[in-house]
């Protein structure tokens, strides 16, 4: 009997003496400061989570539910500190926004933060310190749920760390959007920009204008057969391909985002990329053309909102009222890209507007359009974001610029003292190929492998420190012309989003491709457990 006791003791203490080295710590994005010590903390059946508020309780429950599935037991939540083996949260108002400190001892773990985001990120880091099998939906045996004794002090380099999903070119439902929110939070990304309006579909219910979704959300085919909006009109009488999110869906998505520190920013495109709206209400365009919802995009698309009719602005203000009631974000994105102004040049309403407002040309008319909308948005206490074309003809006074045609627009906006979000096509376009074209599914073009995303830096060397301060962060964009399914969408997003998260979160001096490409392997295993259809090819090639 004594022998058995000795054997058991030796066996169990050996197991717990697993020695962690730096290489075993495979957190993405890489924490700002980490110091590893000897020993481990072991999660056990009777581990307690000590919480002080409902948010801490909710995020603890999320980790506990992983334990329940993977280990079979369920750690408890309590309000009082037990004698041993617990995880506790402490508030420290001197820490920065979203920052956290994680102190792992042999007996207990402390997560220190100022805000919800910090506490959440502390737990996300614990999740990534745990064996990858913590992601398993089925019980796994022979796993010790240990993490190393370690001290981590972590905070984001940029406050804006985003992903844009294009819901217009193909529709993606609320379930997929919520899954994407989980995956963003896992990487400490904090913005999901929803592109809700484009030529190929209007995706947000607007109660005052029901035809926007009755007509504008549906096109005739999934394939890109009816590219031309004017030709699509008859075919589209029976449009059945598409869909939209109700206001309830969107409120639910917003609330879900709040539990994961992911802010949802809506984009309501104007004045172009709006065939779907004009198909529903032809009078929104200069010449009241009857068009249909196209399945692709014949360029240029000339039917855009009329900038001369006051009724256009009344419509947009009504739409924005409903949008602002759904999304608490301080930002509203109004698009502004790629407006072909052919119609404005001959439209009597537009020409009259140019005259009465003392404008020089149609570029200044677009600037007038955006400034007028900005005034309205500002009057409701919100801020406007637009694609970099909003610089043309003069930037609206408070606008934030999203720079997509390279970084030039962002540089110019920062010189003018405006805030900037960098999202240059060269590094941030996830609709581009990520591996050799002959091995990849059809994509729009471009070549942006994982390593190229990893090279991204939102701050351009030529910027002065003052200008650099205006760079809020960066964003990956997934345009969906060639992406009809969620599995394909996942394929384009992952693992490139992991690279993006590190460029936006971690200190620049810690960035190291070899180190990242070794850590990503652990993330692949997590994605395997989570059923994320990530691209393996992206890993194999370098730019
Ligand atoms: C340009 S980026 C667009 C989108 C397309 C994308 C395809 C931007 C503001 N406009 O409408 O989907 O290229 O890569």
TrEMBL record:
Keywords: Glycosidase, Hydrolase. GO terms for molecular function: beta-N-acetylhexosaminidase activity. Residues 158-507 form the Glycoside hydrolase family 20 catalytic domain. The keyword Ribosomal protein does not apply. One of its GO terms (biological process) is carbohydrate metabolic process. It catalyses: Hydrolysis of terminal non-reducing N-acetyl-D-hexosamine residues in N-acetyl-beta-D-hexosaminides. Residues 25-155 form the Beta-hexosaminidase bacterial type N-terminal domain. The active site is at residue 338. GO terms for cellular component: membrane. Belongs to the glycosyl hydrolase 20 family. This is beta-N-acetylhexosaminidase. The chain holds residues 6 to 548 of 773 of the full protein.
């Amino acid at each position: 009997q004594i022998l058995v006791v000795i054997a058991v003791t030796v066996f169990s203490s050996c197991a717990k003496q697993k020695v962690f080295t730096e290489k075993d710590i495979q957190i993405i994005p890489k924490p700002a400061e980490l110091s590893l010590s000897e020993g481990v903390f072991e999660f056990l059946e009777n581990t307690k989570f000590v919480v002080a508020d409902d948010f801490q309780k909710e995020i603890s429950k999320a980790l506990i539910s992983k334990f329940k599935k993977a280990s079979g037991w369920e750690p408890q939540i309590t309000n009082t500190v037990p004698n041993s083996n617990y995880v506790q949260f402490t508030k420290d108002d001197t820490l920065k926004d979203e920052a956290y400190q994680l102190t792992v001892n042999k007996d207990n773990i402390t997560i220190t933060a100022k805000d919800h985001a910090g506490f959440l990120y502390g737990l996300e880091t614990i999740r990534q310190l745990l064996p990858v099998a913590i992601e398993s939906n089925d019980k796994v045996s022979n796993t010790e749920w240990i993490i190393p004794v370690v001290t981590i002090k972590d905070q984001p380099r940029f406050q804006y760390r985003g992903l844009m999903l294009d819901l217009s070119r193909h529709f993606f439902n609320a379930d997929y959007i919520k899954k994407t929110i989980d995956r963003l939070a896992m990487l400490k990304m904090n913005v999901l920009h929803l592109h809700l309006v484009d030529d190929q579909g209007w995706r947000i219910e607007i109660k005052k204008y029901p035809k926007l979704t009755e007509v504008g959300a549906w096109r005739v085919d999934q394939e890109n057969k009816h590219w031309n909006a004017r030709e699509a009109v008859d075919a589209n009488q029976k449009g059945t391909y598409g869909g939209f999110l109700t206001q309830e869906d969107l409120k639910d998505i917003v609330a879900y985002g709040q539990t994961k520190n992911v802010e949802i920013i809506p984009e309501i495109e104007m004045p172009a990329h709006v065939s779907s709206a004009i198909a529903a209400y032809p009078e929104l365009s200069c010449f009241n053309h009857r068009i249909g919802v196209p399945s692709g995009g014949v360029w240029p698309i000339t039917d855009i909102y009329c900038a001369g009719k006051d009724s256009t602005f009344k419509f947009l203000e009504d739409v924005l009222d409903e949008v602002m009631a759904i999304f608490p974000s301080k930002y509203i994105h109004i698009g502004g890209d790629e407006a072909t102004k052919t119609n404005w040049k001959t439209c009597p309403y537009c020409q009259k507007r140019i005259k009465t407002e003392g404008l020089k040309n149609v570029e200044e008319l677009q600037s007038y359009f955006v400034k007028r909308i900005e005034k309205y948005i500002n009057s409701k206490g919100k801020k406007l974001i637009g694609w970099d074309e909003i610089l043309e003809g003069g930037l609206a006074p408070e606008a934030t610029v999203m720079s997509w045609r390279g970084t030039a627009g962002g540089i110019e906006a920062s010189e003018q003292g405006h805030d900037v979000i960098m999202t240059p096509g060269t590094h941030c376009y996830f609709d581009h190929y990520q591996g050799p074209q002959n091995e990849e599914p059809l994509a729009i073009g471009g070549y942006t492998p994982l390593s190229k995303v990893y090279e991204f830096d939102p701050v351009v060397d030529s910027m002065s420190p003052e200008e650099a301060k205006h760079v809020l962060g960066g964003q990956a964009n997934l345009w969906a012309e060639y992406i009809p399914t969620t599995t394909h969408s996942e394929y384009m997003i992952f693992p490139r989003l992991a690279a993006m998260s590190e460029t936006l979160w971690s200190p620049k001096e810690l960035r190291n491709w070899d180190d990242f490409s070794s850590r990503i392997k652990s993330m692949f295993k997590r994605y395997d457990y989570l059923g994320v259809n990530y691209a393996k090819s992206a890993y194999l090639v370098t730019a």
